[in-house]
Amino acid sequence: MTDFNTAAGNRDPDIAAMQDNIYMQEILAEEEETVDAAVKYGLDCELPRRKRFRYWCYRFVKRALDIFCSALFMIVFCWLYLILAICVKCSSKGSVFFKQKRVCKNGKEFYIPKFRTMYEGADKILFTLSEEERRQYREEYKLHNDPRITKVGRFLRKYSLDELPNLWSIFIGRMSIVGPRPILKIELNAKYGSAGAKLTSVRPGLIGWWSCNGRSLVRYDEGERQRLELYYVEHCSLWLDTKIFFKQIGKVLRHVGAA
Description:
about 260 residues, mainly alpha, two-stranded antiparallel ribbon, two-stranded parallel sheet, 4 strands
């Protein structure tokens, strides 16, 4: 389940973020619109009304589970991290990890870490995209059958193993195990518009209602992905989180919608 990684080598994170935005703006410039994305896709921008004490209890229990589960997994499976890091390093030239700025709760930005899945210098291919590939990226912020992905990277993406470094983001509170997908700021503005504040009123997650309902098979272009993510914001609860967790396991094992 993964996003458009424009960097692969050892670049300074701040410089990388600046370059990534330049590349993306080049592609998105062809689709500049004055219409608010929330209006365009028919999105509900109103923040959900919650029972304060019940919601506080939910957030407290959820945060405790996030800390416990992420710490336990990182300790028990530290050997897996080592094996995957060696595989990534040996697969192609470049750093083991990839970092990119994403939006988290309340619109703040943070660096999302993943195992690198692309060849070094993959960002240069952005300027050689065909018209069809540009259209695809403008709609979904990713490319299908991406030639920049390494063989090891395809395996990691197929089973979402490239996401494992995000458990550290969960442990320190930037993300949660379950929540809306953390996205780029330019993506938030282009695809959610004034509904962006509603989306970022909760922590982003490693898995979510959108990802367990098709992942890459559910697209932005008709607003279905946005509605699924906002549905979670409106109805988040321990029951829904548990349902998403077990549903996601089945999706990953059958690699439904992996990209």
